[in-house]
Amino acid sequence: MVYADGRMIREPADLKNTLTRDALTDKLGRPQRSLRVSVTDRCNIRCRYCMPEEHYVWLPREELLNFEELTSLIDAFTFNGVEDIHLTGGEPLLRPNLATLVRMLRTNPRIRDIALTTNAVLLAKHATELRDAGLHRVTVSLDTLQPDRFVALTRRDNHADVLAGIESARRAGFQNLKINAVVIRGVNDDELSGLLEFGRGIGAEVRFIEYMDVGGATDWSPTKVFSRSDVLEKLGQKYGDIEPLIENSSSPAERFKLADGAVFGIIASTTTPFCKNCDRSRLTADGLWYLCLYAKAGFDLRKILRDGATTEALISRVASVWREREDRGAELRTLEKNRSAFISIDQLRKDPHLEMHTRGG
Ligand code: SAM
Q: How far is C-alpha 204 from the chain's CA centre?
């Protein structure tokens, strides 16, 4: 296959006839469609549900993949069925020249969708160049409309920057903006309709996310989870009937429609996981590949790459690992009695790869 930048990649002989869109599936019959690529583990805010500690162990800079290395790895994934790339972090806009990476990804004809998940603190500065580079979509994480609450939640005073970032993304022409809000009981569960109306006002779809007990969430407890059914009940009280949208989609968000037509989503990974449809995996900024947000170990693709593996070898490696995948971490968590934070702070200090901000959320 010839790429738009002139590179040519041969299909490995053993995969040639098997890599049709539906051929490569894991042990539970799940295809590989979406890759979340964390471009940095650093973040410029400190959300209480993600980075509650004062100090963190960061990935060594020399271990971070450069853009050529990243795109080589991503090529191997797209050869195996991935067509959606989500750039994430840490905060992805902290990675210098992110637009250059987007431009490089746009030369890969197998990629259908390139999305960015950001806290939007720096989005006003970068929205236009990212749009010009060919970024398709932006999802902004915004948990509150109250500036004081934003400071309490993130320990940074950037609420106005986030709102300016969202406005810049709109003006730059991004369609299908999404707002992701993690809902925590007693913290921001009084803002569901406010966030919904904010989204409606700017033409963005709001997705309410259940607080997850993943790495980083060391303050997690079941009592703080504002569940899918809590969200539906609360919005039902205000808006009346809520209709589920029946969709054939592997998106993590279940979508619903209010009687007045407004559509919103719920990502219920804590109480109602979607493992059986999970077609995503995660690549950290230093090239470790995780098949599940709850996986405790990843595959070191950086080592294979820096040891000189050919693209063909990388493609075969990704295929063979995916075929053996049987992770369903979120479902198994629901079977846990006395559920508490998944990873202890001591373990997180020993291995930053266990952190949510390293894996990209
Ligand atoms: N900095 C970017 C952002 O804020 O969108 C990307 C990285 S962030 C880790 C990705 C997503 O993970 C965000 O939407 C964030 O709200 C979510 N997240 C982090 N910790 C979470 C938790 N414990 N439960 C649920 N969602 C979480």
A: 18
Ligand 1 atom 2, closest CA: 118
Q: pTM for the full model?
A: 0.94
User: Over the stretch 215-265, which tens digit does the pLDDT of each residue have?
Assistant: 999 999 999 999 999 999 999 999 999 999 988 888 899 999 999 999 999
Q: Which atom of ligand 1 is nearest to the CA of 117?
A: 5
CB-based contact 162:137 (threshold 8 Å): no
Q: How far apart are the CA of 7 and the centre of ligand 1, in A?
A: 35
Distance 307 CA to ligand 1 centre (A): 33
DSSP string, 225-272: B--HHHHHHHHHHHH--EEE-------S-EEEEETTS-EEEEE-TTTS
Which residue has 């703080």 as its token pair? Answer: 224
- Closest Cα to atom 9 of ligand 1: 361
DSSP state of 211: P
Distance of CA 148 to the CA centre of its chain: 26
Question: In percent, how much of the chain has pLDDT > 70?
Answer: 94
Output helix, strand, coil percentages for the chain, rounded to the nearest 5: 35, 15, 45
* Residue 2 one-letter amino acid: V
From the alpha carbon of 269, which atom of ligand 1 is closest? 25
pLDDT, one tens digit per residue, over 296-315 is 999 999 999 999 999 899 99
- Whether residue 277 has pLDDT greater than 90: yes
